[in-house]
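Thanks for the sequence, V.! I ran Vesicle transport through interaction with t-SNAREs like protein 1A right away. Repeating your input here for the record:
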Amino acid sequence: MASLIDNYEQQYAVLTADITAKIGRIRTQSGNEKRAFIQDVDRQIEEAQELLEQMELEVRGVNGAARDRLRGRVESHRAELKRLTQEFQSAKKPKDESIEINREDSWESSITEDQKKRLLDSSERIDRTGRTLQNGYRMVLETEDIGSQVLKELHEQRETIHRGRGRVRLLILTYRIDI
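Predicted structure:
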């Protein structure tokens, strides 16, 4: 069941990285291109919400301490999606709804091509960094799972040693009584 949740989390990570990249591009687009990005991000946000619901259903089926840990991860994902949704809402608003601005006087016309290129490069760098952070977070979670498995195995080995020691003591007592 944990592998299914991990699969959902991987899908979610890819989806949110794509949403983040598209939100950055919405701000630089206009007209039909902007509308297409907005529709695509709307669809992806709904898909991400469905993934979170699937994760929550799977977490309900998990027992013990793992459930609390997984529930915390899902809540973290939900908070991230809420932040992305807010970012998306602000990105799709027109730059200034109340004042009509001539194209010559607009903010966009005062930006040079070099500045636009640097902004896009920075946005892509931020996206790459976000993906790197998500991969790092995923590795931390995998390491945590491996550590808990090792601790569980060590506990089982300890119990086996205790049982073996108890049997040896019983044999020694039995042997001493027979002598």
